[in-house]
Design a protein that fits this description.
Blueprint: H1 2-6, H2 9-26, H3 28-31, H4 67-103, H5 105-119, H6 123-134, H7 138-164, H8 168-175, H9 180-188, H10 193-216, H11 228-235, H12 244-271
Helix pairs in contact: 2-4, 2-12, 4-5, 4-7, 4-10, 5-7, 6-7, 7-10, 10-11, 10-12, 11-12
């Protein structure tokens, strides 16, 4: 797998950037030069290094908070919500997709109709609706991420299960008295891990965008918690006088989403049996 990854500059770039962001989130207290929530009106709108600023490398916002420190701590929210939302969405989607594909009949019809109904709503609008009902907060944002991502897992897993359950080794396990639970989660699900991994990676990019959008609209985590989306929202009043306040978090969001997508695209190509990489 590493040999194949080295042949793909875009995939390697995506993985390296993801690792750097993860390390930045883990070691945020050590890397951040200032308290991200501490206000210092004396440093209000202080320039970054490109304008000769030395105290705040990426400048300071309208209340004197260090932009670099807020970017570093904001990565914790983006990555944390992305990992947790994708994980719980994966669990729900794999379980429901496996059950629908294996049992079929009315179970498949019921789950299929739920999927169809949810797909009729754009995920951003659905996210806003759920947050408006449940309220803001990290837990609710993770719940929203899971509720908007499980559908993709379920659809793919269902299709894979429909083909795998007809194979000879599944019939052999069934004839030997294997329980449905053992057949589904012991023999079928392990054989659909490849597309699950790919979908989980690509869903993370979507969740990062969703979290930033909700924070931008003021529906994300509490205002005291630094997030990239909230930084963008707070910078809208200074786009002409201090555009770097919006450019810096915008670049962070773009770079992370792009890297996750590049690595996810490489994983999809790697696990594609038509390419013969396995």
């Amino acid at each position: 797998m590493l040999k194949q990854l080295k042949k793909s500059p875009t995939g390697m770039f995506g993985l390296i950037v993801i690792i750097l962001f993860v390390l930045m989130a883990i070691f945020a207290p050590l890397l951040a030069p200032f308290n991200p929530a501490k206000q210092a009106l004396a440093d209000r709108l202080a320039p970054g290094f490109w304008a000769g600023g030395t105290k705040h490398l990426l400048g300071a916002d309208a209340v004197g908070r260090d932009v670099l420190s807020r970017i570093i701590y904001g990565s914790r929210i983006s990555l944390g919500v992305a990992f947790a939302g994708s994980f719980f969405g994966c669990i729900a989607g794999v379980v429901l997709g496996s059950v629908a594909g294996y049992y079929g009949k009315w179970v498949d019809t019921l789950i299929g109709r739920i999927i169809d109904i949810q797909l009729t709503f754009p995920f951003i609008l659905l996210s806003i609706l759920i947050v408006a009902i449940l309220g803001s907060g990290i837990r609710n944002i993770i719940l929203v991420a899971a509720l908007t991502s499980w559908v993709r897992f379920a659809r793919v897993v269902r299709g894979e299960v429909l083909s795998i359950k007809e194979m000879g080794y599944i019939e052999a396990v069934n004839s030997l008295g294997g329980s449905n639970f053992r057949i589904i989660f012991g023999h079928i699900v392990p054989n659909v891990l490849s597309p699950i991994i790919v979908i989980a990676t690509l869903e993370m990019a979507k969740i990062i965008t969703m979290e930033a959008s909700l924070s931008y609209l003021g529906l994300g985590v509490p205002p005291s918690v630094p997030t990239w989306g909230r930084m963008l929202s707070e910078a809208t009043s200074y786009l002409q006088t201090n555009p770097s306040l919006a450019i810096v978090p915008g670049v962070a969001i773009t770079l992370l989403v792009l890297s996750v997508n590049l690595f996810g695209d490489w994983l999809r190509d790697y696990f594609d049996p038509k390419l013969g990489n396995n």
